[in-house]
Amino acid sequence: MKPLEFTNFEDFKIAKGQQLPVGNWYTVTQQMINDFANATLDKQWIHVDEKRAEQESPFKSTIAHGFMSVALISKLLEASFSIKSVKLGLNYGLNKVRFPNAVPVNSQLRMHAVVKEIEEIANNGIKVTFNCTIEIKGQEKPACVAEFIAAFFE
């Protein structure tokens, strides 16, 4: 689905309470998992040892880190909307995060997001709270459910 495009913050305010377009599927590769493991120093065998995971894991493969799903939220949101006037966007935080399902290597993910709240903040900015659900293709339970907050500045 095509991302929504907004001219400025005033225009974006109509999105409050609305579901944003669902983005494209992204494949989680072993290279992505390894890169995340190296960046975070979380090199548990379930993430990086393909042979051991195939033999010992209940998932029969490596799985992505739960926090990798959270780290993808900003990128996945980019596929849903843009605000032309934005000069800078920052991750502001999370109110609630859950990982209901593991993400086996080579799974495909996409995000469903709803604009929950929009607040004006200092320096010509807005703070936006999104209800995010990261879907795994072919799975009933999502990879991640999170209330994600971003700050945008014009």
Write the layout of secondary structure elements.
Blueprint (H helix, E strand, L loop, with lengths): L3 E3 L2 H4 L13 E2 L2 H11 L4 H4 L1 H7 L9 H6 L1 H6 L2 E3 L4 E11 L9 E14 L3 E12 L7 E10 L1
Parallel strand pairs: 1-3
Antiparallel strand pairs: 2-5, 4-7, 5-6, 6-7
What do the pLDDT scores average to?
Answer: 96
Count of β-strands = 7
Count of domain modules: 1
**What is the 3D shape?**
elongated
Q: Report the helical percentage.
A: 10-25%
Q: How is the largest sheet built, in terms of strand order? A: 2-5-6-7-4
Describe the overall structure.
This protein starts with a strand and ends with a strand. It has one domain (4-153): Roll (Thiol Ester Dehydrase, Chain A). It has helices at 9-12, 30-40, 45-48, 50-56, 66-71, 73-78, and strands spanning 4-6, 26-27, 81-83, 88-98, 108-121, 125-136, 144-153. With 154 residues, the chain is an alpha+beta fold. It has a five-stranded antiparallel beta sheet with strand order 2-5-6-7-4.
